[in-house]
Structure prediction request, 661 residues.
Amino acid sequence: MFTYIVRRVLWLVPVMLLVSLVTFILMKNTPGGPWDRDLTARQVDATTQAMLNKFYGLDKPLWRQYVAYVVGDFDSDGKLVCGLLCGNLGPSYRMRGLSIQEILFNPPEGKPLWDSRFGFSARLGLLALGMAIFVGIPVGVIAALKQNSLVDYLSLFITTVGISIPNFVMAIFLIIIFASWLHLVTVITNDWSEFRSWILPALVLGFTTTAYTARLTRSAMLEVIRQDYVRTARAKGLEERAVITRHMLKNALIPVVTILGPALAGLVVGSFIIETMFGFPGIGRAYVTSIFQRDYSMIMGTTLVYALMVAVANLSVDVIYVFLDPRIRLTE
Amino acid sequence: MTVISTARQRAQKELLLPARPRHSLTAEAWYRLIRNRAAVFGMIIVAFFLFMAAFAHVLAPENPLQLNSGKGFLPPPWAGEINDIRGDPQFFFGTDTLGRDVASRIIYGARVSMVVGFVPTGIILLVGTIVGMLAGYYGGRIDSLLMRLTDVIYAFPDLLFFIIVMVALRDTFLGKLLNGLFLLFFALAIVNWVGVARVMRGQVLSLKQKEFVEAARCIGAKDSRIMFRHILPNTLGPLIVMGAFSVPAVIIAEAILGYLGLGLRPATDPNAFFITSWGSLLLEGQTAIHAQPFMLLAPALCVAVVVLGFNFLGDGLRDAFDPRLSGTQ
Prediction:
């Protein structure tokens, strides 16, 4: 077990390197550069561009730039600045003087840690995940206990629709209905300290996962309900609540727990379109903006952060699975 | 000699006859499928949109590129007065900024969405099947290479990858082919074949242990024949189901890319086959959320309904090909 985990974690290193290499190659093939401005704005003149390129090392050959990014490079004083291997994601080309990891993980001056861009995205993802757990699982359990009743059919219908409607389409519907027609929330708010602003993005982001969790819980419960040990538990006179929570749920939740890891990764990654739509100050929007601004190091940094989160989520699932269900052996 | 062998073959055939099921597996799956109400509903939706895509030039009431000056932002005629403007019965979903008919543009948009849904899915299935088959059948180095590759591609957040590819190659020769459709196919297919290959590999791994493969090998069938005549037909079920779920996923990806302004290039030639896509329409509609919400609502509804239809169909297909799975998930 321990060697398995170690091997999987070590395997992450080449995977991340390859992800960074692919991103690097694609980025460098993108027309335009970080010093381009809108046609209407004041342009950066050629000599300044050359100086900037020299300062950021963009005038060096490509392989040299990549090595500098991953391993590190000597700065103008001849001191070694460590690269990606030490967790340094490089300087931002748009926000001078700040490194990517500072932009992503450091909160604004005097604010708590969760007010950083990463903190915002993480809070949104956790809200959505909380919705999946605290709404999805109970709905699935109730639907299974009252199989073929009106409640069951209703929840099946809603969850099927919930799985099918892509979250950004859902966002469009909700924005038009609640913001544009009913004026219950502001279309694009600037005030994220208010809880009201969080409702729509979290709802939209969490809906698919909630629906999926509910359906999975329902089918897992239906399988468990007919097991012999449930009948035994009832026969020995256990009260219904104890049968449900201690005997049924405990076994039915195994498949549910295993999807929550990838679900969280999906919520974090899937959030960038939602963040863009709602003007949410998280990593996702930073990614989309950086793409259009050709902020190379920001594109690279956010892609790597995302890739790492997805990989860790997948890994954690495989590990959790073994603890939950001892029948499974890790062979590879 | 030949006479004897054909006679023997005939005898064998007759011997085997009663043991065979009355219908083929596919026919039975089809029978189960059309008895599934949700699946039939999904099929009708899909057929409706396919019809819309194929006959867009006949069905569209207006020319989707026709500008009507002074008639911009008209609401739908049935919606009553919105912002003190009354709709024109000529335009069912109203008009956009430039006075173009929204309904006609959506009908033409179905064309792109359907093609974008089916073509990359075809590529994904083809490439995934071949690679998965080779990896599962021969094992060894191809197999471990495939598994390592899937690890990398699984770690790459796919939408982020689509975005980078679209931005990077948009202005190259590749990105200009077919108004950018070619690049879209390429970007959507290059990641997703891996999932198919993985499932296919698993299927082949278990199937190649079966007696019928051994029997085929005993009578001297070549590897290629075993792979494509004996193993492939047995994996058809999962392949079709994966295809049915891949189409909506790709349609959603296209809509997101279009929404970010990275999809199809806007066509200027009125005779072009692909005029606009639902993704691009969403992008246009987003700018007029108060003035003409139906520019946004109508294509969004189309995406939702199409995806719903494909998901119903996919669920039905899965149950039809593997009745044991019925009702799970």
